């Protein structure tokens, strides 16, 4: 039986992982210019039901969201991809640690469901759907939202 890695080219697999590496690095450094360069021009971002389309609108929403934090640290964990030529789908699980400007520490467990497009040999996000699994106290004492 073929494994997923055998189905996907190693080059595409590494490029998709590097896309997420660039994305999380930009979040961790609060670098909007680098962050938005991970998205296709006509991309769409679904942030817990709030859907915005186009790089300008996506960047504007991200900047508003990030302005609430003293810092945010994103740490991706497991992922899964299915590549079909110049398009792909996949998902990532994340650990996120933030501190609000009021000093509140928050731990977030989440998942991104993605579609990707390869433009000029470079993988970019076409769509991202952000889903919360947990958002609360660092001791994980809050409510967990089951995902499908």
From TrEMBL:
<dbReference type="Pfam" id="PF13577">
    <property type="entry name" value="SnoaL_4"/>
</dbReference>
<protein>
    <recommendedName>
        <fullName>SnoaL-like domain-containing protein</fullName>
    </recommendedName>
</protein>
<dbReference type="InterPro" id="IPR032710">
    <property type="entry name" value="NTF2-like_dom_sf"/>
</dbReference>
<feature type="domain" description="SnoaL-like">
    <location>
        <begin position="9"/>
        <end position="128"/>
    </location>
</feature>
<dbReference type="InterPro" id="IPR037401">
    <property type="entry name" value="SnoaL-like"/>
</dbReference>
